Each structure stands twice: as C-alpha cells, then as structure tokens.
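Sync notes, pocket subgroup
Present: LS, DG
LS reminded everyone that the earlier model was apo-only. Rerun requested with S-adenosylmethionine included. Inputs:
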Amino acid sequence: MTNYFRDYFGNTDDRMIVKMDHYLDIYAKLMADWQGKEVSFLEIGVYKGGSIRMWRDFFGSGSSLTFLDIDPSCVEFQLEGTTVEIGDQSDKAFLKKIAETYGPFDIIIDDGGHKMDQQKTSFQMLWPHLKDRGLYIVEDTHTSYWPGFGGGYRRKGSFIETAKSLVDQFHSWYTDQEEVFKFHAAAKQVHSVAFYDSMVVVEKEHKDMPFSVTSQNGKIAKSHKVVTARNRKSIF
Ligand SMILES: C[S@@+](CC[C@H](N)C(=O)[O-])C[C@H]1O[C@@H](n2cnc3c(N)ncnc32)[C@H](O)[C@@H]1O
C-alpha cells in the first residue's frame, strides 16, 4: 500500500524534516480522507522547514496553510501557498491573533517546544478555533514523562494526564456521581481522544445528548434513558 508520508521522506530536498518513524503510518491512516482536500491547517514548529512542503503537497491547492515557530529564521522556509508566522506557542495574545487571522482550522498539529505549558496553552487557546470534525494532534507526547519538560510519571498537569481527563470529561453525560463527577462542556465537543505512542489526537464534534436506538419490526425508537436515568443497578 502506498504511503504518501513515507514516499515524501524518500523525496525530500535540503530542508530537513523530523518525525518519529511510526508517525508516518499513523498519518497515512489518520489523514486518508483529507488528502487533496482544501483545508485550513496550522502546524506549530517549523525547525528546518521540511514539513511545509510535505503538508502543502498533501492538501488541495486552495488550502490555507499556516506554520508557527518561535525562531525568526524560520521565515525563510515559507513556500508559495504557505505562511510562516513567528511567535511563542505559549503566548496567549499571539495565539489569539493567529486564530483570528487564519482560523478556524480543520487540522492543528502541535510539533513545537513539547513542554507541558506550551502544549496545554496552545490546546486551551486553539481548541475553540478547531472546526467541527476537525483534528487536534499533539506530537511527541512522550515528553509528558520527562521532568525536564514539566512532565513525569502520572504527573498532574502533564499533557498526557490532561488528555486522559478529557476521556472522563466527554463521558460526563453519564455521571451517576455528580458530587465528584460533574457534567463537563467537553462532552458536547469531543468526539474521540486517541492515544498513540507519543501522539495524542483529539477529534472535535458538536454533539447533543447521546441516545440509544431500538428497532423492532422495522420501527425505530430512540431513548435518552442511558443519560437521564440515575442510580442504576442494571443496564436494562
Ligand atoms: C520538532 S521541531 C519542528 C519540526 C517540524 N514540524 C518538522 O516536522 O520537521 C520543533 C520546533 O518548535 C520550535 N519551538 C520551540 N519552542 C517554541 C515555542 N514556544 N513556540 C513556537 N515554536 C517553538 C523550535 O524552534 C523548533 O523549530
């Protein structure tokens, strides 16, 4: 099976790109439906510029492709059809301006400094500017296990722990323990949180209260009981 991303790695120019090898297979699956589409895309982290051409050539020619880096020298990597902006991914005012100028986005990739405050501030500021059905991807989340990056095993406030909390939050429709597990707005916005080795992908979806469906003799009925019933002892 062809893999655009592996093929790209075999056809780079002098602008280096850096990814963990297994991301190339993850991206091939994750991005399959987006190839050739006109998207609004944001990547944090330019480094030597190698990912700019990879993404530009992957998406449709009418796409809006924005890249951010804290290093001013990254401006030189801007290609036709792309924009490189310089600023700090933990600077809320800068991110607000980027979102207002280039958002809302279909896809956001955080491949920047990989420190906890950077990843969390970027997620907090940019998530509201991700479109319905959009993807928010954070690379190199192994730094959540590195104290030097603000992480550490099960460290409260690491990006991985924040993403794990999102899993609880988007299930909060079903709380039966309001005193410790309150309804959270993320339940109306998060479709999925996928954990890969060193990569977290959060998919957005605006949702109303989930419901179950029954069908008998071709007659479909829906019920919100799974959400509204309290103090359950049995699922039936
Ligand atoms: C891993 S490299 C990016 C690699 C690139 N995305 C690629 O695929 O080849 C990380 C980049 O993040 C940038 N960076 C570090 N801290 C940052 C911050 N606070 N805000 C924005 N960019 C930052 C660095 O200057 C560096 O160029």
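DG: Residues 50 and 175 are 45 Å apart (CA to CA).
LS: The pocket of S-adenosylmethionine is lined by residues 17-19, 43-47, 50-51, 68-71, 88-90, 111-113, 118 (CB under 6 Å).
Action: DG to write up.
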